[in-house]
TrEMBL record:
The keyword Nucleus does not apply. One of its GO terms (molecular function) is mercury ion transmembrane transporter activity. The keyword Membrane applies. It holds the Pfam family MerC. Signal peptide: none annotated. It comes from Marinibactrum halimedae. This is MerC domain-containing protein. Keywords: Membrane, Transmembrane, Transmembrane helix. InterPro entries: Mercury-R_MerC. One of its GO terms (cellular component) is membrane. The chain crosses the membrane at residues 35-55, 67-86, 92-111. It comes from the Bacteria.
Amino acid sequence: MKDHVASLCSGLCLLHCLLAPFVIALGGLGIISSILSSEWVHILLVIPVVILVLLSIPSGYLQHRHYLPGLLAISGLLSVFGGLWFEEQEVIFTAAGSLLLIAGHQSNRYFSLARPVVA
């Protein structure tokens, strides 16, 4: 369940990342474009992503002992934070990070379902 919610959050980040520049470019949407480009929106989107990675990936690893979900999730988080740091390439970093996070959570879910709990 955590991986589904986490994938949804990462998907929302991806959607925001891809749609926000178009909405801002339209300019006619005023307050919406102002909200979408605000720094607090980025922070508001990143907080649940980080929390869900911390809740989901380590517990999944303890269950299935596969490194892939963790590597994908860490790479995704680094890329998302890279988007916050390198504002000129924000869309590229954040989109790649969101996709890596989704892949990490989905592989975590797959490995958790495919392998019984390890004692």
